[in-house]
Write a structure and sequence with these properties.
Largest sheet: 7 strands, mixed
CATH class of the largest domain: Alpha Beta
Number of helices: 20
Number of strands: 11
Structural class: alpha+beta
Number of domains: 3
Length: 419
């Protein structure tokens, strides 16, 4: 594994201070898989407090504390972000994902510190100064064999780990060890806050190369019970398989179309809702997030029935009218990506995308060219009449009667003065 000179320098600093700095968690897993990691987690052994840790790195840049329960020091140097923590025990004192008390121990062994982690692939450490892999639970072998396996009995103390299991299956194309799946089925998932459920589902959708694998794993882990709308769809295997293929196709498209994260999230959730009723879709998303923009956009996109095959053959002028009016309801870029995900022909969608970009509606509806001030300048008395004329002008703009403010003023003048 290769890490940056800054990472090496930081570890040498801790060594000089009498501490042992070990890279842990996802950055080690990703390093073994040959994936670059910009966010690095470093566990500091031998330090009594995070104040001691801060003294070692304070001159490298602003250091901030994050997390109320699991305290972490965060440092950003250039493009790299470092999280520093102390080896700890998580003592279960209550229900849910937050029902833990943290106990740090400067003398704790790496094996004991790693035993609190969820899966063997996340319980590895790496000493970059000696280039030593620390792997007390066989995570490297499990990664090689593409098996997701829990570390130990403490796994069942945190119900969030069942959701983490399914998103890791999708992200790394793994199979779940039978005893791990059995433990997941015993977890009390109703304890989980919706923001935590959303975060894990979001990772499955946005970070996976094959998200369908994660959704397939929901049944064997019991996670599907959290999503009754998806459970209903899964009863129809053909419909379910089409939906899964759409998610996988969109996941691969991300590389080709530079599809930004926000847009991809909306389309992914709309694909899940595509065969739901409007009420089911709203209930499904409302249980996951308070993000009204996401919910609204995903619901509208999933319910939009206009088929590209029905309009792609139209002449430009007629097609432009339909695209302008479609842009009032959904983002056309997202609409095109959704249809591409379900397997519509690329050449047809390319024409629609090119046309929408040409008339300026690929991202949003056209801005009104005629405003209230124009009508007042023409002599309309401020009040409801102004709104009526502005609305009439906008309808004409959508129909392509005028395309500039100047032409719009001429048109609305003729309409008003003629009226």
């Amino acid at each position: 594994m290769v890490f940056s000179p800054m990472t090496i320098d930081i570890c040498k600093r801790f060594q000089a201070a009498g501490y042992w700095a070990v890279l842990v968690g996802g950055c080690v897993r990703d390093g073994i898989l040959g994936r670059a990691a910009t966010d690095l987690d470093i566990e500091i052994f031998g330090a009594e407090s995070l104040a001691d840790v801060k003294l070692v790195i304070n001159d490298l840049g602003p250091v901030s504390m994050v997390g109320q329960s699991y305290q972490v020091l965060k440092l950003r140097v250039g493009e790299q972000e470092f999280d520093f923590s102390l080896p700890r025990r998580d003592v279960k004192v209550g229900s849910g994902h937050r029902g833990f008390v943290v106990e740090t121990d400067a003398k704790m062994s790496f094996e004991e510190a790693a035993s609190r982690r969820d899966f063997t692939m996340n319980a590895m450490g790496f000493d970059p100064l000696t280039e030593t892999l620390l792997d007390p639970f066989g995570g490297q072998a499990d990664l090689k064999n593409k098996v997701l396996r829990h570390v130990g009995p403490a796994f069942s103390e945190d119900p969030l780990r069942a959701l983490r299991a399914v998103q890791f299956v999708g992200r790394f194309e793994l199979s779940i060890a039978p005893d791990t799946a059995q433990l997941c089925r015993k977890l009390s998932l109703n304890e989980l806050a919706r923001e935590r459920v959303f975060a894990e589902l979001d990772k499955l959708l946005l970070l996976s190369e094959t998200p369908s694998l994660g959704f397939e794993a929901m049944e064997e882990t019991g996670v599907l019970a959290l999503f009754p709308e998806l459970a209903r769809i899964r009863l129809d295997r053909e419909t379910w398989d089409v939906m899964m293929a759409s998610l996988d196709r969109l996941s691969l498209m991300d590389l080709d179309f530079k599809f930004e994260r926000k847009r991809r999230r909306i389309v992914m959730f709309s694909l899940l809702c595509r065969v739901m009723t409007p009420d089911e879709c709203a209930a499904f998303l409302d249980r996951l997030t308070q993000d009204r923009e996401l919910v609204g956009a995903a619901v509208r996109l999933s319910m939009e029935t206009l088929n590209p095959d029905d309009i792609v053959w139209l002449q430009d002028a007629d097609l432009d009218i339909i695209l302008r009016r479609l842009s009032l309801k959904v983002c056309i870029y997202e609409w095109i990506m959704g249809w591409m995900a379900v397997g519509a022909e690329f050449e047809k969608l390319e024409r629609l995308q090119d046309r929408a970009e040409f008339i300026g509606v690929i991202e949003s509806a056209p801005a009104a060219l005629i405003l209230g001030r124009h009508m007042i300048e023409l002599g309309v008395t401020p009040g409801p009449e102004v709104g009526k004329w502005v609305k009439q002008a906008y309808e004409a703009q959508l129909d392509g009667i005028f395309a500039t403010e100047e032409d719009g003023i001429v048109w609305i003048s003729d309409q008003f003065l003629g009226h």
